[in-house]
Design brief:
Layout lengths: L7 E6 L2 E6 L11 H16 L5 E6 L4 E3 L4 H5 L4 H19 L5 E5 L2 E3 L1 H8 L2 E5 L5 E3 L13 H9 L1 H10 L2 E3 H7 L4 E3 L4 H13 L11 H8 L2 H19 L4 H16 L1 H16 L2 H16 L16 E5 L3 H14 L2 E5 L3 H20 L6 H8 L2 E4 L10 E4 L5 H14 L5 E4 L6 H5 L8 E6 L8 E6 L5 H13 L3 E6 L6 H17 L4 H11 L5 H8 L1 H15 L9 H6 L12 E4 L2 E5 L1 H7 L9 H21 L6 H12 L8 H8 L1 H15 L7 H9 L6
Parallel strand pairs: 2-3, 3-5, 4-6, 5-7, 6-8, 7-10, 11-12, 11-14, 12-13, 14-15, 15-16, 17-18
Antiparallel strand pairs: 1-2, 8-9, 16-17, 19-20
Helix pairs in contact: 1-3, 3-4, 3-12, 4-5, 5-6, 5-11, 6-10, 6-11, 10-11, 11-12, 14-15, 15-16, 20-26, 26-28, 26-29, 29-30
The structure holds (S)-3-Hydroxyhexanoyl-CoA.
Amino acid sequence: MAPSGPAVTWDVHDGIAVVTLDCQDQPVNVISRAVKDEFIATFELLGNDPAVKAVAFFSGKKDNFIAGADIEEFVRLSSAAEAERLSAGGQEMLDRVAKFPKPVAVGIHGACLGGGLEFALACHYRVATDDPKTQLGLPEVQLGILPGAGGCQRLPRLIGARAALDIILAGKTERSPKAFRLGIVDELVPPAILRDITLAAARKLAGGWKPRRRRPGGFFGWLLDGNPLGRALVFRMARKQVVKQTRGNYPAPLAALEVVEYGLKHGIAEGLKREAQLFGQLAVTDVSRKLVQIFFATTQLKKDFGIPNPPPPATVRRLGVVGAGFMGAGIAGTAVAQAGVDVRLKDADLPRVAKGLASAREILDDRLTRRRRLDRYEHARLVALLSGSDTYAGFGGADLVIEAVFEDLAVKQQVLKEVEAATRDGSVFASNTSTIPITRIAEAARRPGQVIGMHFFSPVARMPLLEVIAGARSAPAAVSTAVAFGRRLGKTVIVVKDSPGFWVNRILAPYMNEAAHLLLQGVAMEEIDRLMTQWGFPVGPITLLDEVGLDIAAKAAGVLHAAFGERLAPPPALDALVKAGRLGRKAGNGFYKYASGKKGGPDPAAYHLLGAHPNGGVRPAEIIQRLTLVMLNEAARAVGEGVVRVPRDGDIGAVFGIGFPPFRGGPLRHADDLGAGRIAAELERLAGQYGTRFTPCEVLQEQARGNGRFYS
Ligand code: 3H9
C-alpha cells in the first residue's frame, strides 16, 4: 500500500502540537518505512519548535487508530539481517518518542494493534475510547513473528510480566475496558471527549504533572513479577504452557518469551537488541510466511462475494430459524449475539423450542459473564430479540430463513414448502445441510432462485467458517445475501460448488476413513490422535469422530460413498459402534471413555466391537503419510472439479473448518511444498500396498508431469 500524500500532519494550538496520522487512500493506518520516516521528521521538528510544549497524537481515520507495522513489507524481506534492521529501525523511532523531551499524550480510538500499540506504549500518557471498536493488542505471534518495536520490553514493564505474557504469547487483542483494567490505558472516555481529554492531559503533563500509576497486577502481581523467584516461576509456567500448546510447531511464542525474560534480566537496551535479532529470524521463517498468507487470504475473503458482479445483498433484519436442535439454537444465538437481528425460532413442539431458546441464550450469557463482551443492558436487549414458536407465526417479516432440521431430503423439502408459504417472495431460504445437494432441495421450491446453502460448523458460536453453496438455480442476490449475513456473524465465508460433501466434508471424509482403516490394522487410537495433533491438527481424527458423533459421521460418510464410490467407502466395521449406541461424546461413550463430560482413555469395548487389536504394526511416519496424503489427494481432485473457485478458498476452508495446521498454509499450499511429483509417487506406492483409494488423482498426475502447482 503506497500512500499518495503525507500521512503525518500537525498543528500547534496553545502550545500543544496536535499530530494526526492518516495514511491517505488506505483503509487503515499502518506504519510503513515511509510513515516511519515521516514520524521521525515530525518529532525532530516538534522537538526543535519552542512554541511546542507537548504533543497530543490522534488518528485521522474514523474507526482505526493504527493496525501495526505494514505487513506487506514483511513479505518482501529476504534475509534475517534485513528483518532485524527493520525491527531495530522501528525500535529506534519509538525510543525517540519515549525519550522525547516534551510529553506525548495519545488519544486512541479503533484498532490499536502491533506496532500501533507499541507506539502508544512509547508515549507518555494513553487515553482510549470506551467504544467496542477500540481494541488493543499485540497479534504478532499470529503472524509468526514477535512484537519487534519494543513491545516485548515496554508492555511487561507497564503491566507486569504475567499480564504481558498473557497478551504477547497468545497474540491477544483486548477491548479498551480490559486494557484499562490491566493498566495499558491511563484513561477511558466516551469517543465524543477523546480529543479534549487527551489535549488536557498533554497540557497537564507540560505543566509538570506526573500521572500516578498503580503497581501492575496488584499485590499478587508484585509477589510474582516483582522478585526474581516469583518471576522465574511465571516464566517456567508460561514456557510449559507454550510448549504444550504449540507442540514445537510455532517458534514465535517461545522466542517472544525468551525476549521478555532476557529484557527483564538484562535491561531494556539489551532486551531491544535480542528482540530485533529474534524478530529478524522469525520474519523469514516458512511458518511466518504461511501465517501472513493466511492473513491476506482472510482479508481478501472479507470483500469477495464468490460470484462475478455480485448484486447488493439484502439487509437481514429478521431471521427465521427452523429446527431448535444444537445447530439451530447455535445459529439463532450467534445471529443475535453477533448481528443483533431479531430471531424467530421454530420447531415442532414448544418444549423443543424452549430448550433451543435456552441454549441460544447461553451464547449471550457467556458473553455477559465469562467473556465480558456485553453489559447487562445490552444483554437484556439482545435476549429480548430471541423468540420462538411451534408455528411459523412471525416468519412473514423474515428476510432470511435458515433451516437446521433432520438431515433428510424429504424432511428438508417439506420444511422448504412450509417456509415458502409463510414468508414473502423476497425472503431467502438457506439450508444448513452438510451433505444434501442444494439443487435437490430446491426441486421442491416455488422460488428456487431464493434457495441457497449455508453450511455452519459445530459449535456455531465458536467455529469461524461458513460454506455458502449456490445451487444450480440460486439467484446471485441470494448468494450475496447469504455471504454478507455470514460475515455479519463474524464468519469467514467461502462460496463452494453444490457437490456432495461440499468442500470441507469432502476432504475430511477420506482422512476419517483412513483413520478407521489404521485402527482396524492395529494402530492404537491414541497413537493416531497423538501423531496428528503433533503434526498440527487441534484434535486427532478419532477424537474428532467422537466429537462430531459417530452417527452423524457415518451418515455423511455414507452419502460420500454413494456419490464417489469405493474410493470414499468407510470401513464397514464402524457400523458396529453406531449399532451399539456408541455415538461419541454426546452418548457418553464412543472410541474413548467419558465420565461426567470429561474425556478419558481409550475404551477397550470400542476395540472389541471393531475387532481391532492394537499391535503397533504401522510406522508413525507411514501413519502420518497415509492420513495426510489421502486428504491432499481428495483436495486436489475437488479443486479439479471446481468445488472451490481458487486454491485460496480451499486452504482457508481447511484451516478454519477442520483446523488444518495453519503453519502449513492449508492442504493445497502444503501439496505445493511437497511437490506433486513426490506426492504422486508416494500415493502410487500406497495404492500398491493398500488399494486404489490412494491412486493419485488426475490433477496431481498432471501437475507431476508438467511441474505444476496450485499457486503460481
Ligand atoms: C507488527 O506490527 C510488527 C511490529 O511489532 C514490529 C515491526 C518492526 N499491514 O482487515 P481489513 C489492510 S505486525 C498491511 O479488511 P477490518 C488489509 O490487508 C502487524 N495491511 O479491515 C486490507 O487491505 P485491502 C500487527 C494491513 O476493518 C485493509 O487493510 N497487526 C494491515 O475488517 C483493511 O483490512 C496486525 O496483525 C497491516 N498491519 O479490520 C493487525 N492491517 O483493503 C492486522 C490491515 O487492500 N489487521 N491491513 O485488502 C487487522 O487485524 C485488521 O485489518 C484490522 C481492521 C482489525 C486492523
